[in-house]
Specification:
Radius of gyration: 19 Å
Largest sheet: 4 strands, antiparallel
Number of strands: 11
Helix content: under 10%
Structural class: mainly beta
Length: about 180
């Protein structure tokens, strides 16, 4: 608060991103100063200032887009399946069951607003798959996605040989 009082919360570092998750709302119409101490390669202390407004975020996250899109057909069997949400997601609310693909095991990751699923091996050939994003994901303001979201797509038999990068997912090849 104005650089004099520490605001309660936690800090998480993911790759090159430092995120502060407040444990309580910031005060309306207040100015806050973020101070990052010199350490770990940072030569000098760095400060950032921001001001809050008067409106609280009460909007729950929702699905903005999916890859592949609902109803897509003949998709490569080595794709990364993803869903981009309308808001930044608190990574502590993401787990291995946050996104599931019918009959397929894999790993789940989150980068900003994008939830990704990468199968442990190629997806089944010529198969209609159902992808489900489970409820319970929270945005940074603590609003919860209250209903699950599902869609289907169909694989083909090809393996994509080139990467198509989605800028919203850092260093993720959607088609390998």
């Amino acid at each position: 608060d104005g650089g004099t009082t520490a605001h309660p919360g936690r800090v998480e570092i993911s790759d090159k991103v430092l995120v502060f998750y407040p444990s309580q709302n910031f005060t309306a119409n207040a100015t806050y100063t973020i101070t990052i101490q010199a350490a770990g390669g940072l030569a000098a202390e760095t400060k950032y200032t921001f001001s809050t407004g008067t409106v609280a975020d009460n909007t729950s996250p929702a699905i903005a887009s999916t890859n592949p899109a609902a109803g897509d057909t003949n998709m490569p069997i080595n794709i990364t399946i993803s869903a981009t949400l309308t808001e930044l997601i608190d990574p502590s609310t993401v787990n291995s069951s946050s996104i599931t693909v019918s009959g397929v095991s894999g790993t789940v990751s989150i980068t900003d607003q994008t939830l990704a699923f990468k199968s442990g091996s190629n997806l089944p050939v010529n198969t209609t798959l159902t992808v489900t994003i489970k409820s319970g994901l929270k945005d940074l303001a603590g609003n919860t996605m209250s209903a699950p979201y599902s869609w289907t797509f169909t694989t083909g038999s090809s393996v994509a040989s080139t990467c198509v990068y989605d800028l919203s997912i850092f260093d993720t090849c959607l088609y390998e």
